[in-house]
Amino acid sequence: MRFRDLWRDFDWALFGAILVLSAVSLVEIYSATKNSQFEQNTAVRQLVWICLGIVLLFVVAALDYHTISEQIPWLYLAGIGVLVYTLALGRTVSGSKSWIVLGPMRFQPSELVKVVVIVAVARYLSELRNVRHLNLEQIVKAGMICGIPVALVALQPDLGTTITFLPILGIGLLVRGIKPLTLVVMLICFVLALPVAWPFLGQHQRDRITNFVNPEQDLKGSGYQVNQSKIAIGAGGAFGKGIFKGSQNQLEFLPTRHTDFILAVVGEEMGFVGVALILGLLGFILFRALNTAQTARDELGLFTVMGVFGIYLFHTVENVGMVIGFMPMTGIPLPFMSYGGSSIIAAFMAMGLVISVRRRRYVN
Q1: 241: Cα within 13 Å, side-chain hemisphere
Q2: Apex CA 51: angle with CA 45 and CA 56, to 5°?
Q3: How far, in Å, CA of 183 to CA of 173, rounded?
Q4: Rounded CA gap, 108 and 94, in Å?
Q5: How many domains does the chain have?
Q6: Given CA atoms 2, 55, 286, 13 in this order, what sign does their dihedral have?
Q7: Contact criterion met (CB below 8 Å) for 168 and 310
Q8: Over the stretch 221-261, which tens digit does the pLDDT of each residue have?
Q9: Is the separation of the CB atoms in 93 and 331 below 8 Å?
Q10: What's the CA gap between 299 and 293, in Å, rounded?
Q11: What HEC string does the chain produce?
Q12: Which of 181, 199, 302, 320 has its C-alpha lying 20 to 30 A from 96's C-alpha?
């Protein structure tokens, strides 16, 4: 195969938006960590992850997504095995036993397993022929494909990552077809199950929820982070204080500013214009994925891209809502912006899947 044929119909616009986001991410991560003695070389490490992610994006985009789907049973079993290993022998960070350490490198397997689950759910749903509405058995089977890794991640426990799996299943069921009554019953069961989950939450998770309900109750404790985030964003005004000049950022008043709260750093230093740029690029990526799903060659491509769309729409809405106090704190990163090797690699691979589907939309 000739090189030009290999990259025919490659989505350079999508790739360009990802690169711009990644470049802004590097600048703001450096700004957020340059004065910290504990986070030295963070921007350099992020650059390494981005470069590796770009390579993997091209590799996944070059592969036929049907070929990936054919191997998904083995990839799924491998993913389950890695999650079990993590639960047994992983390293605990911030109360969650969700990391594997290999020499100087550590990674979070659950982020990569998301990509596998996307294709696994897409393969199952695409194989259901002549189905107008899913029956209970089919819903349960799809739920088990997603539910097994969800249960293993929940046991770590990692509530934030756990809930990011759910949009894969939810949007897949909606696109495949589900009776309105069944959907209502599922939503009622979900709501009724929430109080049951309360005793199994860690204290820090309970604090995050109670602080969301009553944000003014503990501004110096559990509510400190969100309050500082809102101060930083408000201080940025329309055009920001300038790169490397945000006081909340540079004076380290804002915790986890290079990871979950990177958007607050953007808001303080680049203002409303910077935040609008970031959200505009993320919106473009999501709408580009929707366009790819609409023009997909087959249902496997459709469900694959919609799974990616569901995850990263949820990531974006939850992270932005968390930063401005409209959503509970969950530790969910902002796609292509927050520091984190595992989440960056997973995001680039997921976009590789989208481009793979797009490249083959006109193939007979």
Answers
A1: 21
A2: 125
A3: 9
A4: 13
A5: 1
A6: negative
A7: yes
A8: 566 778 888 888 888 888 888 888 888 877 777 888 888 89
A9: no
A10: 9
A11: CCHHHHCCCCCHHHHHHHHHHHHHHHHHHHHHHCCCCCCCCHHHHHHHHHHHHHHHHHHHHHCCHHHHHHCHHHHHHHHHHHHHHHHHHCEEECCEEEEEEECCEEECHHHHHHHHHHHHHHHHHHCCCCCCCCCHHHHHHHHHHHHHHHHHHHCCCCHHHHHHHHHHHHHHHHHHCCCHHHHHHHHHHHHHHHHHHHHHCCHHHHHHHHHHHCCCCCCCCCCHHHHHHHHHHHHHCCCCCCCCCCHHHHCCCCCCCCCCCHHHHHHHHHHHHHHHHHHHHHHHHHHHHHHHHHCCCCHHHHHHHHHHHHHHHHHHHHHHHHHCCCCCCCCCCCCCCCCCHHHHHHHHHHHHHHHHHHHCCCCC
A12: 320
Radius of gyration of the chain (CA): 21
For residue 101, list its beta bridge partners. Answer: 106
Give me the torsion for CA of 265, 268, 269, 274, rounded to 10°: 90
Asked, for residue 205, whether it belongs to a domain, the answer is no
Question: Residue 73 corresponds to which tokens in the numbers above?
Answer: 């049973």
At 239, list the tokens: 């055009």
Residue 351 structural domain:
3-194+219-359
pLDDT in tens, 154-204: 888 788 888 889 999 999 999 888 887 877 887 887 777 766 666 666 666
302-140-187-117 Cα dihedral, nearest 10 degrees: -40
What amino acid is encoded at 223 in this protein? G
User: What's this model's pTM, rounded to 2 decimal places?
Assistant: 0.91
> Does residue 208 lie in a domain region?
no
CA distance 292 to 11: 10
**Residue 71 in tokens:** 């191997």
Q: How crowded is the C-beta side of 321, counted as CA atoms within 13 Å?
A: 13
Torsion sign across C-alpha atoms 312, 315, 317, 319? negative
278 part of a folded domain: yes
**Residue-averaged pLDDT of the chain:** 86
